[in-house]
């Protein structure tokens, strides 16, 4: 029996090309696949744990190594947006230790303002110098940036950042592989594996990629050997068995729902004809439902989830809403029908139809936390229509939530104190204006000419810890969006001090116009 086990292990090693190792989760993003092996088993040589004889293969073909360009390696400070475009100084991180910055980036901000999401995304994608206090080999800040993008469902930017850093590190490869799976590009993910010999992939991943490359016989032999040695957990074993030999499962009952859904499990379940719904899975999985082979309703729902986190643009969301005619009512169908009516009315420049459609559409989109997308789509064309009374007021308020807020503010004759304050914020000067409510008071102080940088931000800026101050300000403003207004004025003043004037005005306007977050 030991001889048989040695033979099977040798076969598995020859076909898979990876050492036997324990599989352990490596990340705070606990839904990532356990796609790499990270520790040798106790006993035996780490490279060849079953003895020298097993390292020789006498017939198992090794897949050719495929190379692919991963871009320039810049593991310390990769970025997709240059300093001239981002408006952020290259030395933003300054003297704050890298580990502290990574911890700040990883804090939970699931319910925040669209403008703050955009600012966070800018920080994650900007090309910035590494913090001056960085331990050798520490890439925690890069991983925090990538994981932040994954939490937002922004898969392509996260993939691009990792390509710039290179895939040789296990944590980098793990994310690159899973992003490829979530984007429905399994072959792309497996090419990354073949191009990264420095990383030892887990047995399920190697078997999956052998099958994807068309070498089903090698995949099956590797699977049988690994399963016989108990190297694959039972649930994954059952899933791989059905994936590799679907005919053997004809007439069999469906597999039970997986206890833990990783991108690899998600793709395997889809491959065996048991696709999993994404509504209850982490947001990154929603990208899978945007493919054209998914039903219309599921694509709209996925688009809405991603849009709330800024990972689907307004025009793409409108395209999903108007792709077909809604055949039912309630929920997503009401939003789709309302958006189609408003879009048609604005396109036809029919003022009466706009007046009839705009209030309902705004109410439906606001209820779904998508009002800012409505503003992005229609604020500019609404500003060119001769709207009257309540419709004009509503169009103005949408304009204040759009990128054209300053232009639209200049066209408006304010009707009350609230509108005067909104226009003052849009222009960046609230001196002499009266705030009509507590929220207005909290926001207004940052735009008065006498606004000074307050503690703790002043001390952080003086100590060259600008990035730390910015992340703390984003956190304080997220609290403001949830109703805690104590630090709103100081945080907005910090944004203005750092030169993020447009972001400060957008955040302030959203604080006044959008419903408080839960």
Give structural notes.
The protein has a domain of 95 residues. 53% of the residues lie in helices and 1% in strands. Strands 1-2 form a two-stranded antiparallel sheet. α7 packs parallel to α12, α10 packs antiparallel against α11 and α24 runs antiparallel to α25. It starts with a helix and ends in a 5-residue tail after the last helix.
Radius of gyration: 27 Å
The coarse overall form would be flat
Category from helices, strands and their pairing: mainly alpha
Largest sheet: 2 strands, antiparallel
**Percent range of helical residues:** 40-55%
Mean pLDDT comes to 87
Taken as a percent bin, the fraction of beta residues is under 5%
Number of helices: 25
Name the poorly predicted regions.
Answer: 1-9, 16-27, 39-74
Query: Which sequence of SSEs, written as H and E, runs from N to C?
Result: HEEHHHHHHHHHHHHHHHHHHHHHHHH
Distance between the termini: 61 Å
**Main sheet strand line-up:** 1-2
User: How many beta strands in the DSSP annotation?
Assistant: 2
């Amino acid at each position: 029996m030991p001889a048989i086990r040695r033979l099977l292990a040798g076969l598995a090693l020859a076909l898979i090309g990876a050492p036997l190792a324990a599989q352990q989760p490596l990340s705070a993003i606990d839904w990532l696949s356990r796609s790499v092996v990270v520790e040798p088993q106790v006993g035996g040589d780490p490279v060849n744990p079953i003895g020298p004889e097993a390292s020789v293969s006498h017939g198992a073909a090794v897949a050719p190594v495929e190379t692919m360009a991963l871009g320039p390696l810049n593991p310390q400070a990769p970025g997709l947006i240059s300093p001239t475009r981002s408006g952020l100084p290259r030395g933003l991180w300054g003297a704050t230790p890298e580990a502290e910055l990574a911890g700040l980036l990883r804090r939970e901000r699931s319910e925040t303002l669209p403008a703050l999401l955009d600012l966070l995304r800018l920080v994650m994608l900007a090309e910035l110098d590494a913090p001056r206090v960085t331990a050798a080999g520490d890439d925690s800040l890069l991983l925090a940036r990538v994981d932040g993008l994954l939490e937002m469902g922004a898969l392509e930017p996260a993939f691009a950042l990792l390509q710039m850093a290179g895939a040789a590190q296990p944590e980098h490869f793990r994310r690159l592989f899973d992003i490829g799976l979530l984007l429905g590009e399994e072959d792309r993910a497996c090419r990354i594996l073949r191009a990264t010999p420095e990383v030892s992939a887990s047995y399920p991943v190697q078997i999956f990629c052998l099958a994807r490359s068309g070498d089903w016989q090698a995949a099956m032999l590797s699977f049988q050997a690994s399963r016989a040695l108990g190297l694959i957990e039972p649930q994954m074993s059952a899933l791989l068995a059905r994936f590799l030999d679907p005919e053997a499962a004809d007439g069999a009952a469906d597999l039970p729902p997986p206890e833990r859904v990783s991108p690899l499990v998600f793709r395997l379940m889809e491959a065996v004809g048991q696709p999993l719904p994404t509504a209850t899975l982490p947001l990154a999985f929603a990208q899978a439902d945007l493919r054209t082979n998914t039903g219309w309703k599921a694509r709209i729902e996925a688009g809405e989830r991603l849009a709330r986190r800024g990972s689907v643009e307004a025009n793409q969301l409108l395209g999903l809403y108007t792709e077909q005619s809604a055949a039912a009512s309630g929920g997503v169908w009401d939003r789709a029908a309302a958006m189609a009516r408003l879009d048609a009315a604005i396109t036809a420049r029919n003022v009466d139809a706009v007046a009839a459609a705009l209030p309902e559409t705004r109410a439906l989109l606001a209820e779904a936390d998508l009002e800012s997308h409505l503003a992005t789509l229609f604020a500019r064309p609404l500003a060119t229509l001769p709207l009257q009374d309540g419709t004009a007021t509503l169009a103005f308020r949408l304009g204040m939530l759009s990128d054209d807020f300053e232009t639209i503010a200049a066209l408006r004759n304010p009707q009350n104190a609230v509108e005067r304050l909104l226009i003052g914020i849009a222009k960046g000067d609230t001196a002499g204006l009266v705030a009509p409510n507590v929220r207005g008071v909290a926001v207004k102080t940052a735009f008065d000419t006498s606004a000074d940088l307050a503690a703790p931000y002043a001390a952080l800026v003086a100590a060259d810890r600008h990035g730390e101050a910015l992340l703390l300000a984003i956190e304080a403003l997220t609290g403001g969006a949830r109703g805690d207004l104590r630090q709103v004025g100081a945080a907005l003043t910090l944004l203005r001090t750092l030169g993020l004037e447009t972001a400060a005005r957008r955040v302030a306007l959203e604080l006044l116009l959008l419903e408080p977050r839960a």
